[in-house]
Design brief:
Elements lengths: L3 H11 L7 H15 L6 E5 H19 L12 H17 L7 H11 L1 H19 L5 E2 L2 E2 L12 E5 H9 L1 H19 L5 H10 L11 H7 L17 E5 L3 H4 L7 E5 H5 L8 H20 L5 H11 L2 H10 L1
Antiparallel strand pairs: 1-4, 2-3, 5-6
Helix pairs in contact: 2-3, 2-7, 2-8, 3-4, 3-6, 3-9, 4-6, 5-6, 8-9, 10-13, 13-14
This protein binds zinc ion.
The site of zinc ion has 7 residues, from strand 6.
């Protein structure tokens, strides 16, 4: 017979409404904490503070790399996401460069160097959890289920049976799959960017991969041997050479020849993650036509060339541009 707690926990995840992703983050935090806790007592008290810290981590990673929208109300960003976005901006101001990094890798750095900002974000997150999430999570169809965990409105802790925490621990892989899947479904209802599920999953499991783009040089050089900057139109010296995604990587989460151009490092860093103008897209389309022509003249084939050809035929430049604008 399946355990009642486990069924209820999954039911909350499955039946969560689609207004925001708080419940998913909450469920994920509890599963993650179950892996960290050593349970000696019968009941375990979990601090909202440690849950809030996990919220910050999830939203930080999904925002700093992919800028995913986490709520159905597009006018008003969910509060916790607002706090995290502010923290990301504070972090960028402090390091003076917009270089995204995973929260886990810089957590200690943040706590030391922008401790005031971090603590403010943490306190605000705890407040919102109290108002909006901690108690609501135990309600299914308007009915409170203390079997999931005990919580009284306003408390700083939840109280959960150690045996239940162990159930989360034993089933963590299935639960992460379920949570990520639901999280992705919710995000799909208000994000138009491609590869949502992959973005949610990847952020959870491993390093966000940003592959080296140097393999594209041999193709770009064929069309642009002088290495003229796509942004400013001037020649680029070797030490200033970089390859840029015209439609931001954070949106596409993919490296494709049709979307890559040569730019100055300095031109690149001044515009990171900015949505390109229509003029840029027209320029990119022209570039792609000229590029495929030259590749054919030189009789160059292969996967990368086929993908470029497909992109031109399907008008990816324009379609993805429209997508990332909306
Ligand atoms: Zn330039």
């Amino acid at each position: 017979m399946e355990n009642n707690f486990y069924n209820l926990f999954k039911k909350v995840i499955r039946e969560c409404n689609y207004t925001n992703t708080y419940k998913m983050a909450w469920a994920k935090a509890l599963v993650e904490i179950s892996l960290e806790e050593e349970n000696n007592a019968d009941t375990v008290k979990i601090d909202l503070k440690s849950i809030a810290n996990k919220f910050i981590k999830y939203y930080w990673n999904q925002t700093i790399f992919f800028d995913l929208i986490q709520g159905s109300n597009l006018v008003e960003t969910p509060l916790i996401l607002q706090y995290v976005k502010k923290l990301i901006n504070d972090y960028y101001s402090f390091i003076k460069i917009r270089k995204p990094d995973r929260f886990e890798r810089i957590e200690e750095y943040i706590k030391v160097n922008i401790s005031k900002e971090y603590n403010e974000c943490l306190e605000n997150t705890i407040k919102t959890l109290k108002v909006d999430v901690s108690w609501r999570f135990t309600y299914i169809n308007g009915e409170r289920h203390d079997e999931i965990y005990k919580y009284n409105k306003g408390d700083d802790k939840i109280e959960i049976l150690a045996s239940n925490l162990n159930i989360l621990k034993e089933n963590y892989e299935d639960l992460f799959d379920l949570i990520n899947y639901r999280w992705g479904l919710i995000l799909e209802t208000f994000n138009s960017s491609p590869r949502i599920n992959k973005k949610v999953k990847i952020i959870d499991e491993q390093e966000v991969k940003r592959n080296s783009l140097s393999k594209f040089k041999e193709y770009l050089d064929i069309e642009n041997p002088e290495r003229i900057c796509f942004i400013c139109g001037k020649r680029i010296d070797n030490q200033e050479l970089s390859i840029d995604h015209v439609i931001p990587w954070s949106y596409l989460y993919s490296d494709d020849l049709w979307n890559l151009v040569y730019v100055h490092k300095s031109c690149n860093s001044s515009k990171s993650n900015v949505i390109p103008s229509e003029e840029d897209i027209r320029k990119l389309k022209d570039r792609n036509k000229s590029l495929i022509k030259k590749l054919r003249e030189k009789d160059i084939h292969g996967k990368i060339v086929n993908e470029l050809n497909l992109a031109i035929q399907k008008d990816y430049e324009y379609k993805f541009w429209i997508g990332c604008k909306s």
